Amino acid sequence: MASLRGLTLVFLGAFGAAVAGAGYATYSASHRAVVTLVDRRIEEVSRALLDETRPGDAAAILERVRLFAGRRETGDIGFELEDARGRWLGGNVHLARVIPSGFSTLYRRDRIVGLTAGRALSRDAGGGLRLITMIETEPVDGYNTLRLRNYVLGFGLIALVVLAGTAGFSLLIRRRIAEVRRTAEAIADGDLGSRVPVDPAGGAFAEQAVSFNRMLDRIALLVEGIRNVGGDIAHDLRTPLARLRSRLTRLVEAAPDAALAQELEAALAQCDEMLGMFAAILRIAEVEGGDRRAGFRPVDLAELAVQIGETMADAAEARGGRLVVAADAPAIVTGDRQLLSQALLNLVENALAHGPAGTMVRIAVAQRGDTVLLSVADNGPGIAPADRAAALRRFGRLDASRNTPGHGLGLPLVEAVARLHRGTLALGEAAPGLVVTLTLPRGPTG
Amino acid sequence: MKLLIVEDDADYAAGLKAEMEALDHRVTVAATGPAGLTAVEREGFDAVILDCMLPQIDGASVARRLRAGGHRLPVLMLSALGRSSEKVGGLEAGADDYVVKPTPAEEIDARLKALIRARGWTGGGETDTLAAGDIVVSPGQHRAWRAGEPLDLTRLEFALLAELARHAGSYLTRAMLLERVWGYDFEPTTNIVDAQIRSLRRKLTVAGGEDPIQTKRGVGYMLHR
């Protein structure tokens, strides 16, 4: 599919060629018509002049020339009589150049006073004499210039109208496309309420915008439905689970022996795991809804990383590992502090959960251009490049991690948080280990 | 405590009523906002548990009317959705705290007790020193002592101790501590509260003395008064 720019250029090129072609055709047709008429007249006049004289009688011919030059209807015609050697014998014009027998074209350079373009006929007048008859092909002085000006004015005006029209048209299309694009991007960013503005004056674009908006209404309805179903299920299952949990809590306390208490503890832990999963589902739904953007504030990721380093240090040490934070300079983003904390916590928890005991985890915050990079690297087993997409999928647990705790919603939640902040999440190789990098747009400094 | 639950979901209200009664509260249920407001006017309650989404007038409006009517009793909002915008709206309308359904009754109980205790405070604020047993915390100076000996605490440990000291004698749940000390509205998979409590305990008892922090399973932590 050709681009709009390419299409415009091709159109303008074709239009230019058509204008030039039409101009040339008109010019040459009118020129040929003039030449044909002039040639016919020269032919007639020269035959009339020679008709009543004996061939070769120079004096009689020159007498006829004088007569013709004096007549009103042939006064504009030039005559010259030459002998066999091309010498001027008489006439009202002196042509410096020797022209061949038959028709020739005369130019300004032939230096005939008052003539810029013309035609000449050299014909045999008997006895080796040659009569040259000349007529201007320009009905008025500077006729060619005038004609050129007419073409430039006429066709130029058309070209101008077409160019302005094309520019206006492409501007209009560009604006409509930009409107649709902005809306599509807003939708992609999770703002399902965004719509294409509809021109109240109507027209094809307005109709298209209305159709587009109807489609978006429908999509929003479907997404809302799906979200509600997910949310409703999670919510409705959470209520009985919470009841089960509080009952189990009371039972643990009342358990008559340690073995039973341990079993109940395990059940309680499973309960908490399920509640955690539902909380993550509901959280992802909330993040994807985009409402949290309303509460965005400047957040210093360096400060946040230090707090999480402090919070998670014990958990890392409990597994014989270590958690280090490399965040020297403040790195401000505009965002939701709680969600960013949760995202970073998830990443650190993942690194600790999936690595072997003694895993080293490193949180780093750095600025690069207009972005802030927040990364969590570990020296664990890493994720093979082919498995990285699966790791980002909801419930997309890798075979290697089947036996570790978790619900496969950690990374999808982090990715949803990144998207809410108009950032990205990338999984990379830390050689050895995994490095997960959140790239977020930098917020206002200061 | 004498509690009023304003909740239109009869099943949920009955369940919560039974659970709160099991925790030694006397509970009245109102199904609509106006019924709840009338109940508060008619009899004295110690606290109100108010659902966000009610027919006729919503929870936030009920809270606003209560405050406009001069009632200062603690109001705890219950939300089914747990959207941050809803929480902000409820707190702005005059509610004191906010939890997402289904919250365990123990959590609601702990929050209500903390709210009622906070009502007893006499102004002052962060610069006053807090005392709990032989522990003294000075939020203004960012320092703490036990039995006159200064404690070497990290920023988080200090914030945790200060929060526990502020509510000494009441249980603070994990969720409450996450909210107030960390500023989190979610529960991380890792039990970060337990970890911080452990290291705080270590530092509080390193120079001898009883463990001043009591743990109640399924509820939370309390600093002895």
TrEMBL record, chain A:
Record has Chloroplast as a keyword: no
GO cellular component, one term: plasma membrane
Major localisation: membrane
SMART domains linked to this entry: HAMP, HATPase_c, HisKA
GO molecular function, one term: phosphorelay sensor kinase activity
Subcellular location: Membrane
InterPro entries named among the record's database cross-references: HAMP_dom, HATPase_C_sf, HATPase_dom, His_kinase_dom, HisK_dim/P_dom, HisK_dim/P_sf, Sig_transdc_His_kin-like_C, TCS_sensor_his_kinase
Enzyme class: transferase
Domain Histidine kinase: 232-444
EC code: 2.7.13.3
UniProt keyword annotations, A-Z: Kinase, Membrane, Phosphoprotein, Transferase, Transmembrane, Transmembrane helix, Two-component regulatory system
Transmembrane segments: 151-173
Lineage: superkingdom: Bacteria
Domain HAMP: 171-224
Catalysed reactions, as listed in the record: ATP + protein L-histidine = ADP + protein N-phospho-L-histidine
Protein name: histidine kinase
UniProtKB/TrEMBL annotation, chain B:
Tree of life domain: Bacteria
PROSITE patterns: OMPR_PHOB, RESPONSE_REGULATORY
Signal peptide (from-to): none
Domain Response regulatory: 2-116
Classification via InterPro entries: CheY-like_superfamily, OmpR/PhoB-type_DNA-bd, Sig_transdc_resp-reg_C-effctor, Sig_transdc_resp-reg_receiver, WalR-like, WH-like_DNA-bd_sf
One GO cellular component term noted in the UniProt record for this chain: cytosol
Modified residues (4-aspartylphosphate): D51
Keyword Transcription on entry: yes
Single GO MF descriptor: transcription cis-regulatory region binding
Single biological process term from Gene Ontology: regulation of DNA-templated transcription
Occurrences of domain OmpR/PhoB-type (ranges): 127-225
DNA-binding region: 127-225
UniProtKB keywords: DNA-binding, Phosphoprotein, Transcription, Transcription regulation, Two-component regulatory system
Listed name of the protein: Transcriptional regulatory protein PrrA
Top-level taxonomy: Bacteria, Pseudomonadati, Pseudomonadota, Alphaproteobacteria, Sphingomonadales
Encoding gene, per UniProt annotation: prrA
